[in-house]
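Our preliminary data section would be incomplete without showing what the modeling component actually yields. Below, a chain of 350 amino acids is followed by its predicted structure, encoded as tokens that our downstream tools consume directly.
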Amino acid sequence: MFLSVEQLEQTLKAGSVTSDAEMARQLSGMQLTERLSNTKAAALRSGLKGKKSREALAALADRSVFRAPPASDILSDPPAEQHTQELMLSRTVQYVQKTLPKIPDFIADRLTISYEQVQLEPGQTWKTATGDQSLHIVQTAKSTVMFRDGKEVSNGEKVKRSTLEAITLQTVGIFGPILAIALVGATAPQSDITWSYWEKGLRGPDAVFRYHARPQKPLFAVGAESLSEDGKIVPFQMNVPFHGELAIDPQSGAILRLTMQADFQPRMPLDESDVMVEYGPVAIGGNTYVCPLKSVSISRQRHILGLHEWGLDFNVYAPFESLLNDTAFSNYHLFHSTVRMLPEYTPAPN
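Predicted structure:
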């Protein structure tokens, strides 16, 4: 069932469903035609009575992040003039080139909630495409991510899995590299970047540009598992063109939200690989920087199924299935390296 944000609000406010499980089931069968903002999602979540329905709403909201916002969130102001657009994009280039490298080394907490579709049940064959396309939580991972010398390093991951075996979806480069990749791709000579609209932002209007990146050099790499000609499972990786949106602060040039959506050729084992990152002001070491607050990654790929039939073991492609990661970043603070003297340690003489 496809609904607008307003129709979703009306459905939830009607309150005709009292069971948490039934509400979760209904939400899992919905798809939004518009982007559900964080503010509206939080308001709707507060009206739900149980954990299952809140989780289903979160997945519904995450799947909508690549949609256009409702008309009520788009300002009616006329488009910026061409020279103003060029000035804003110039500020964004300066921001990525000069401001980002000045961000100090820091540590942040990362919480990733992973969703996937319902797996095939025992007895179902590889030809069976389940009609249930809803997403369910299969894993929650907490970790500390360090941004040091311009590089992202993650450690100390603590994973809580459901009873289902999770298929891992990983997104690399949220801190720093993804900004450069999107901007370099969008502004390449053979790419297109055009004005889209003014959007209501937290501190005023945000300027939104739409782009189609066709870089000559590899920028956006995606991967999955695939089958070789002899039926073995092998890694599949390729660099692809991509498109998306950049929402920027028109005064500072800071990127406040970006999307990157891969453009695939037909008959690939992967036909969707999308990333969205939201940024906001964060205090680190007494100064304020614009850092990632939330990211959503969605992948749709062919699952590989091992079979034993006719006395033979072999692998086949199963139906496409969707994976989704919802990641939140918090508790930013400066990274300080320490030097610790080990017991009974004597420095060597010069």
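Residues 338-346 have pLDDT under 50 and may be disordered. Residues 83-334 form one domain. Preliminary results of this kind motivate Aim 1 of the renewal.
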